[in-house]
Amino acid sequence: MKQFRNNVIRAGLGALYFTGAHYLLRPIFSGVGAIFMLHHVRPHRDGEFQPNHHLEVAPEFLRAMLAHLRSRGIDIIAIDEVHQRLIERNFSRRFACFTLDDGYRDNRDFALPLMREFEAPFTVFVASDFAQGTGRLWWIALEMVIAKSSSIELAIGGTMTRLDTSTPALKQAAFDRLHDHLRSLPGEGDIHREIGALCARHGVDEAAVCRELCMSFDELKPFAQDKLITIGAHSITHCNLARQPKEIARSEMVTSRARIEDALQRPVVHLAYPYGDKIAAGAREFALAQAAGFKTAVTTRPGMIFPESADHLTALPRVSLNGNYQDTRILPVLTSGAATAMWNGFRRIDAA
Ligand SMILES: [Zn+2]
Q1: Residue 141, C-beta contacts closer than 8 angstroms, at least 6 positions apart
Q2: Which pick of 82, 122, 304, 349 has the fewest CB atoms within 10 Å?
Q3: Ligand 1 centroid, distance to 102 Cα (angstroms)
Q4: Distance, CA 160 to ligand 1 centroid (Å)?
Q5: Gap from CA of 38 to ligand 1 centroid (Å)
Q6: What is the pTM of this model?
Q7: 275 CA → ligand 1 middle, Å
Q8: For strand 159-164 and strand 151-156, is the pairing parallel, antiparallel, or unpaired?
Q9: Distance between CA 85 and CA 124 in Å, rounded?
Q10: CA 300 to ligand 1 center in whole angstroms
Q11: 287: how many CB neighbours lie within 10 A of its CB?
């Protein structure tokens, strides 16, 4: 099903490109700028089973995007300046803003050198548990369990279910099913209990995943001093905020901010909601982030930035640079706003 959806999106992006429809749509949907969302930036790895591949782009693709923006004369600006331009209603020039979620070490090793080449600022949103080495990146632990197993047994909806994971295609199907199952569980604790049991049974060191992939606070200190870099908050535990009681959701926002500020000795005024889609961040979270004093908060809802976005500073949409669509021909489609307009059913603001 996921594969089918990927193919439909790819076909849609291709159609927009080949028909030139993105040029026609541009005056209406390109908005005043875009906030791009990335996760990992690292060289392509071989191997058929890469279920988290949508979360990584190759350095060459990022370079192509930066070159494309520069050639179009689009300003590449920091998130602080996005905020500034929105509140001042200064839309004389189109802008792009780069944001990278979770705080992966490859952001420093592969993204930073490239961004320096283009003198392009960017924001890294840090989940404070990840930087403390105690975070649980369950989607990667799940990938590791399935990668090394030939079958998996667990209870889904109260029924003991055995999933064949002996081929890459079966592994992908099992991943999709378990990923959806885990995200549908009522609490974060439920996800962690299930994943913890799977890791124990299949010999995966879940605690090592975070330390292996994420920058520690000690690594973030020099990284954050680079003038191109803004550090934002991304909660403490990387939980689905909308599923937490209000006080916990609030604490995930303000305590993560306090921990990052304390460790890095610099103010943190921007937030990215973990997962960031409609089931993880809604009106209550937007109000909480605003009350907590964040200047901006970004979602993963697809969309361009419009002048009206100034009225929804804690519900900003982003344009995903998705690892499954690293075709440089779609770059003008992404910056035209046609793709996100299509995904949004041609609405400009979606902040409810
Ligand atoms: Zn995240």
Answers
A1: 195, 198, 199, 204, 206, 209
A2: 349
A3: 5
A4: 30
A5: 10
A6: 0.91
A7: 6
A8: antiparallel
A9: 20
A10: 10
A11: 13
